[in-house]
Write a structure and sequence with these properties.
The structure is a homodimer of 249-residue chains. Chain A is an alpha+beta fold. The first copy, chain A, is globular, with a radius of gyration of 19 Å. The structure holds a DNA duplex (30 and 30 nucleotides).
Chain lengths: 249, 249
Amino acid sequence: MKSRRKSPVNLVTTDPHQCSIDLRMRILSRLPFFSELSRKAVEGINQRFIEVGYELGERIYTVGDPAEKLYVVAEGKVKILQHTASGRDVLLDILSPGEFFGNIAALGATAYNDSAEAQSPSCILVIRSDAFREILDEHPELALKALDVMAARLNEANQRVIQLSSMPVEKRIAITLRKLALKLGRQKDSMLLIDVPLSRDDLSEMTSTTPETASRVMSQLQSAGIIESGRQWVGILDLKALENLAEKD
Amino acid sequence: MKSRRKSPVNLVTTDPHQCSIDLRMRILSRLPFFSELSRKAVEGINQRFIEVGYELGERIYTVGDPAEKLYVVAEGKVKILQHTASGRDVLLDILSPGEFFGNIAALGATAYNDSAEAQSPSCILVIRSDAFREILDEHPELALKALDVMAARLNEANQRVIQLSSMPVEKRIAITLRKLALKLGRQKDSMLLIDVPLSRDDLSEMTSTTPETASRVMSQLQSAGIIESGRQWVGILDLKALENLAEKD
DNA sequence: GCAGTTATCTGATGCAGATCATGGAAACAA
DNA sequence: TTGTTTCCATGATCTGCATCAGATAACTGC
């Protein structure tokens, strides 16, 4: 007789539609991306960004929109997704503060080929792509760092291709949960809580399966005592066991 | 009573293990990548590369090898592939002269996470990653171009994820054939011949299916009069019909 | 031209996971 | 509290494609 439990994920509801100028500076200077620049340089860069607040679920941009901006998450979480012809979405990534998205390539792309959406109330720093290019011109080290980030993302995307072409759903879900736990996990009474609203739908979009199948797998994991889960939340009870699933043949 | 036909793909068997210094300069200066640099600058860059010849099927590097080099295809074709846990390969890309591969990110990766293999006798220009970084430092425009290339590749990888998660094999194959035809096609008596040895195995690795299924789909396409194909070769008879398959719902 | 090898074709069978369908439980609003 | 909405669980069924297995055609070397 198992019953679902109340969500332990507390959504911060402070109004983040504005992040103070002060906050901005702190955020920018703390980004690994800008970490090697002088305070003065960061200040200069700071001035070229504007900030925009987004509500939960609000669209930041959509596939096909003219790709002329680059975004940096200052506060909140941002979903990057693509859409299949059949109308289903594929969730490519969930970005945390400090990560950038949008258009870095000024030459190539003229339209976004993915969509971005605030997964929680968020404050986003925005800059025009060409203005960002100027920054890269002034600080060539940054271009190299950006290259590294892109290389890492390319690798992630390739890993996902491998997953889709050779792993059963259970393993894909295990890998995804592990990744989320490491990235967004918070310890909460003897379990590692994934501290973001996470529905079966989200999970199925991340692993390219259906909500029904995701639900079945989650049920199994729960009976096996590996996770604890309810409506829009997941906690890891036995990370070791989860890693075994993610790793095993 | 259909029978397979002799391969119309003529493999160039001139010995390309060496590409002359002269050829190197011509290749480098013709790369879109270096196109905006002065001849003198290209000469300087040229001197920092060494060249290596590879035979058909020879490994250039393998997953896990220390990632310390960047490669540019001068002549021939190079396969980029990853390996699944079950031993099957996934073919990520086939690179033509002018495209680079290997490690651009000097900071992040310490080991290659894919493998590269000569798909035809090839001449490859090689440079140490850190030396390449120096070139990027000296010519910041190049870093921006590299960023564009990476962004394009990331997008391609994401497209592939979409394909795997939502399209049936037939459509994936149609898309792949179209891409190959555009990239490597050569007109030959009323058909557009894909001018590279292309087996059912290759095709299945590109579309993440099995050789058997690829073979079945190819048979269908052939009976439908859309393609003509035999042992290790494919020609497109009806590009329009192929595009329809690739596009259709 | 012949033998051996490698690539391709095609049938038969099985299964992971999609799809369809229904009931129940958390959250939310009034 | 009570209704309403959204999310989740779980059974029943169906199917695209993998897997296994064997036959045949194209290439290679001698």
